């Protein structure tokens, strides 16, 4: 599942879930890509539960305000 939303600066962001095994370095992560400014580095945030299906379900239920809060906490990809 992919979603798009606008941040407070009116930049459009795409957000989606990807990952692997819960409890490992490859557990579920939520990724943010700026669609308006492709020069911005992608950002990510680990999902608390680590399970991809749970993270996707949660993403589908989040409000734009929830996404903005997560975007503020996200870190650049290494």
Overview in brief:
With 78 residues, the chain is of the alpha+beta class.
Overview of this protein structure:
A five-stranded antiparallel β-sheet has the order 1-2-3-4-5. The longest helix has 10 residues, at 52-61. It starts with a strand and ends with a strand. With 78 residues, the protein is of the alpha+beta class. It is built from two helices and five strands; from the N terminus they run E-E-E-E-H-H-E. Helix content is 26%, strand content 31%. The model has no long low-confidence stretch (mean pLDDT 88).
Task: Note the main attributes of this structure.
alpha+beta; 78 residues; five-stranded antiparallel β-sheet
Strand-helix topology:
Elements: E1 2-6, E2 12-18, E3 29-34, E4 43-46, H1 52-61, H2 64-73, E5 75-76
Antiparallel strand pairs: 1-2, 2-3, 3-4, 4-5
Strand segment count:
5
Number of helices in the DSSP assignment: 2
Biggest sheet: strands, sense, closure?
Answer: 5 strands, antiparallel
Segments where pLDDT lies below 50 for 5+ residues?
Answer: none
Radius of gyration: 12 Å
On the 0 to 100 scale, the average pLDDT is: 88
What is the straight-line distance between the termini?
23 Å
Can you give the helix content as a percent range? 25-40%
Proportion in β-strands: 25-35%
């Amino acid at each position: 599942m992919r979603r798009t939303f606008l941040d407070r600066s009116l930049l459009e962001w795409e957000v989606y879930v990807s990952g692997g095994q819960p409890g490992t370095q490859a557990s579920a992560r939520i990724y943010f890509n700026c669609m308006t400014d492709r020069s911005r580095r992608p950002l990510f945030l680990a999902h608390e539960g680590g399970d991809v299906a749970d993270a996707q379900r949660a993403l589908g239920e989040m409000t734009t305000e929830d996404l903005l809060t997560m975007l503020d906490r996200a870190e650049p990809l290494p």
